[in-house]
Amino acid sequence: MEKKNLEKNNMEKKNIDEKDIMEYLQTYDTFALEMFVYNKAVLNEFQVSHGGIYFDPNTKKTRQFDLQATFVMRTYRIALAIECKSLKKSCPLIVSRMKRAKDESFHEYIRSKYPDSGRSIPNFYNNCVVSLEWDKTVYKLGEYVGKSMDQIERKDQNKFSSKDSDVYDKWMQATTSASTLVESSYDLSRSRDACISSIIIPALVVQDETLWVVDYSDDGTVFGEPKQVNEVEYFINTEYENPYNPVNPKYHMSHLHIFTKKGISDQLDKIAHNERYWGFLFYDFPMIR
């Protein structure tokens, strides 16, 4: 009896036609979101890889990233590991934030120096991690930072339903994709006169009007009203070993950035055209006066 019911349910499933596919593309199409980000990055003269393969050290399997975009200004480099997730306004992403603590107020970048004379492989001890803490970092002490995220929607009988697995998988994929950018950052310098500095930023991009924040006070009560935003900084403190010398200090990626389409557009414009922003990221960045 159970087998017959299952066969009947399968027969009753509606076949997908052209109209269904077009409706899907208009409401769920993550690839269109990827192409929007790709074209915006290319327009701003980023070096962009789309849909490449990398090795995930956590699962020990190969995976495909959405986008990796890098921009170089003189001897400084910003590398973005970008994953896209098409969300609906009926099922938005809600990020809960609290004020950033002192030990969360930092970021790091990697300095790659040319190998010593006579060495054919990178110099383990010349390549280093530079850490900028609360009084120098862009991630300021006391500003609101994401600590938890969820997706909510109304289901049957108008009851709320929540989930975070799909978005969690996506932003985790951004941090694992970033591992390849970290590894390459230790071996960039090709001149004895140049030291290449790199910061790696994992990013999740969602549709406009699908990103909300709720701020909490230190005692756990909601502070103010929920509001729509175009960017959220989310504390992750993910660490990566130096691939050439695990004994050296690890590189810590302190924050994930979550953007809407408008937010990522603004971010790419800022990286490509705002030298002052680079000065905030790299303490020794030579500003042109």
- What is the 3D form? globular
Number of beta-strand segments:
15
Taking the sheet with the most strands, its summary is: 8 strands, mixed
By helix and strand content, what is the structural category? alpha+beta
Query: How much helicity do the residues have?
Result: 25-40%
Average pLDDT works out at: 86
Q: Count up the helices.
A: 6
Question: What does the model show?
Answer:
This protein has 289 residues and is an alpha+beta fold. The chain has one domain. The chain contains six helices and 15 strands. The protein has helices spanning 2-12, 18-28, 30-43, 165-185, 261-273, 275-281; strands spanning 47-50, 53-56, 61-64, 67-73, 76-84, 93-99, 107-113, 128-132, 144-154, 160-163, 195-205, 211-215, 227-228, 231-240, 251-259. Strands 1, 4, 5, 7, 8, 11, 14 and 15 form an eight-stranded mixed beta sheet that branches. Strands 10-9-6-12-13 form a five-stranded mixed beta sheet. Helix 3 (30-43) packs parallel to helix 5 (261-273). The longest helix has 21 residues, at 165-185. The radius of gyration is 22 Å and the shape is globular. The model has no long low-confidence stretch (mean pLDDT 86).
Gist?
The protein is α+β, with helices and mostly antiparallel strands.
